[in-house]
Amino acid sequence: MAAMENKKTQKGGSDPLSIMETLGDFTSKENWDNFFSLRGTGDSFEWYADWPELKQPLLSHLFVPFDSDSSLDPIEILVPGCGSSRLSEFIYDAGFHHITNVDFSKVVISDMLRRYVRSRPEMKWRIMDITNLQFSDEVFDIVLDKGGLDALMEPEVGTTLGSKYLKEVKRVLKNGGKFICLTLAESHVLGLLFPEFRFGWEMTIQAIPNKPSSKSNFETFMVVMVKGKSTAPTSVKSLFDDSLLSFSTKQVNSVVNAIEKENSIRNYYSSGEDILFSLKDLQLGAKGELKELIPGQRFQLILGEEGSSLYCYKAVLLDAKMQSESFTYHCAIFIVPKIRAHEWLFSSEEGQWIIVENSKAARLIMVFLDSRHVHASMKVIQTDLSPLVVHLAPEKIEDDSPIPYMMAGDGVKQRIIVQKAASKITGPVIVEDVVYESPDEDNNSSSSTEGLMYRRLVFERSAGLVQSEAFLVREDKADQDKKDSPSVSKKKGKKKNNLRRASVEPKSAFSIDHTRLASSYHTGILSGFSLIASSLEAAVEAGEKVKVVIVGLGAGLLPMFLHECLPFLQIEVIELDPVVVDLAKKHFGFIEDQRMKVHVGDGVKYVFESAQRQNNISKDVSSGESNIKETRILVIDADSSDLSSGLTCPHPNFVEEVFLKSAKEFLSQGGLFITNLVSRSAHMREHVISCMKEVFDHLYSLQLEEEVNEILYACTDKTKIETENVRKLDKLMKFPAKGIEATITTHIQRLK
Question: What segment(s) does the record annotate as region Disordered (predicted)?
């Protein structure tokens, strides 16, 4: 209702507020007919921007477009949603006679036609819905909107009508033509205008001064968009004078900030970097005409978004370098499963062009699956993708022919269901053994997944997201490794021969390899220990306790690795679901001993109570009654059963400010807080990071490549991202963890 109230204060005429009460819904034809009937014949009604103040800036834009065939051709002007405004009358009298006025109210069009049919005979009046204009393409030089877009953009209505209207505006404008929009420039209106005219349009915005006698608190803005030939985005030019800025209101400041934000987005798209486009960007012209094949064209994009598709997909669009008539397919989709995404043939640009050539497709769209898609069937993936990729298909003769799907295998060569369990807390849970397909021998791949067997824990509630993944190892080889202690010390040699192969053997002959981390996000969590390596080193040398609390057991792979690799740790795991604990012990080799304990309970409650005990201990220390020193690490790896918030992991309770403050109290000096963040919502991610910045002074982030996981680290003390910390941690470990040094030095970024 905010926009409606704003507009109500802008009206002219007698008792406008009482008359405006008849409208209610600004998008209703019946309401407008009733409104104009009450106003009576011969009445004029101005939303905002009176002619004396509007005349000079508006007329300066009504000149012949730069690519018009003849400067003698009359300028064709369209005024959509004209209402009973006198704006067209004033423009006509200024010498521009070819004006077409449209409105969906029969009442107002009939009245305006009677009023001007003799005095201004060249002016046309049409009853028409501005979201469905009955004109041919590219027939107008100017589209002049005075409040029409604002009326369609009531916040409670959404952007649907506004988007349809702007699509029509762009269609009927000639190349080089102008869309001139007089608006209050509210945030939701600019939020549609800016992206819709981001690619291939020049945009300026200026304020129209109020008349001296006006008591209005609102500024009217004139946004001018020129339809160009280039798709490259150009900066929005603001033409605000110093007097406006010096007496700026909240409304003006909001517009200035919106322009700055939009220009930063446009600068990003103009940077020349490898941009990741959205489908909406492409439909708005980010890469020109999508229906046109451009030999050698290649760009990356994201398909799908929350609310419109089941999943999001990273994709690459490639148009064959040599276009010919011999293509088997005009357009094709090539699916790359998660396990093969890192192979040279699919991850490198050179390899992708080989795929294009072998596919015999004029346009190939490579779609890369990741952890989100593991348990989705190919039928589900294709059903989800089909309405998205159809927008990327080039023009062709056989418009009704389906787009074919190709695939580099489904990634899983063999799947054995070990157990299906039902939990009242978690829902259906699956334990499975899988063998991934072997990579091709001729693609320069160095993948270590060839023929190996993995055991996985999957929660079906998370749309097939794999919770945990472990290597399986022959028990006879594992026993030999324990006897040959040097083989699991600091040697970097691989143990590929010890790992379970695809051959069918009794399951009892294999066990979980707890000396390796199969999940990259577990390696990311461990990498964070480097941030407090000096504290860990000092604690070990002094014989002090180092306590690790992990909220969320999963299969127990991370705590078991820490237990084996860092023997000085005292580990406590908090798991809400006893079924998960049983599965971890039964199928993933999780054990409890003096250094490893698991508690079935609420992780939030545990941290709150532990923080309170910590406060009590601190009071005892200050009174001289205790002198216990302990370094603490808190890891949050508990997913959420409610996916409506856009936050898959952690549960929203673990990122609320009150919990984060308790976590900080629990850690005390030298502590480390780590959380695994999985979210499809950029807004939710920013919210989580903002909350953590409010509580912690030192915050770091690790975005895992090709994964949906992001690891956030918060330290209570100042630390540095440096190789020396990695070396200190390495010395404390019984055996190495691959990739930590590269992660800490090149991928972890400081956020605060």
Answer: 477-506
* List of residues 6+ apart from 193 with CB closer than 8 A: 149, 166, 181, 183, 223, 225
Which one of 230-239, 363-372, 437-446, 608-617 scores highest in mean pLDDT? 363-372
What size, in residues, is the chain? 752
**Which residues, at least 6 apart from 190, have a Cβ–Cβ distance to it below 8 Å?**
255, 258, 262
User: Nearest 5 degrees, angle CA 636-CA 639-CA 644?
Assistant: 130
Query: Which amino acid would we find at residue 125?
Result: W
Please name which of 315, 317, 435 lies closest in space to residue 369, comparing C-alpha atoms: 315
d(CA 568, CA 571): 10
pTM of the prediction? 0.52
Q: Could you give the C-alpha distances from 4 to 85, 431, 600, in angstroms and in order? A: 18, 56, 54
Can you point out the beta strands (E) in 460-533? 466-474, 510-512
Distance CA 352, CA 318 (A): 8
Amino acid in the structure at residue 521: Y
Rounded distance, CA 546 to CA 280, Å?
Answer: 50
Residue 60 CA to residue 99 CA, distance in Å, equals 17
The amino acid at residue 309 is: S
Alpha-carbon gap, residue 185 to 254, rounded angstroms: 9
Which token pair is 180? 């001139």
> For residues 281, 282, 287 and 293, what is the CA-based torsion angle, rounded to 10 degrees?
180
What residues are paired with 169 via a beta bridge? none
| Cα 319 from chain centroid (whole Å) | 26
Q: What is the pLDDT of residue 613?
A: 81
Q: For tokens 């298909």, what's the residue? A: 393
| Alpha carbons 420 and 242: distance in angstroms, whole number | 70
pLDDT at 324 over 80: no
Residue 200: its pLDDT value, please? 86
Amino acid letter, residue 100? T
Q: What residues contact 728, with CB distance under 8 A and at least 6 apart?
A: 530, 533, 534, 536, 537
Rounded-to-integer distance, Cα 621 and Cα 617, Å:
6
User: What's the token pair of residue 351?
Assistant: 């390899």
| Least confident piece of the model among 330-334, 341-345, 596-600, 653-657 | 341-345
Q: For residue 184, which of 211, 222, 154 has the smallest C-alpha distance?
A: 222
The whole-number pLDDT of residue 13 equals 41
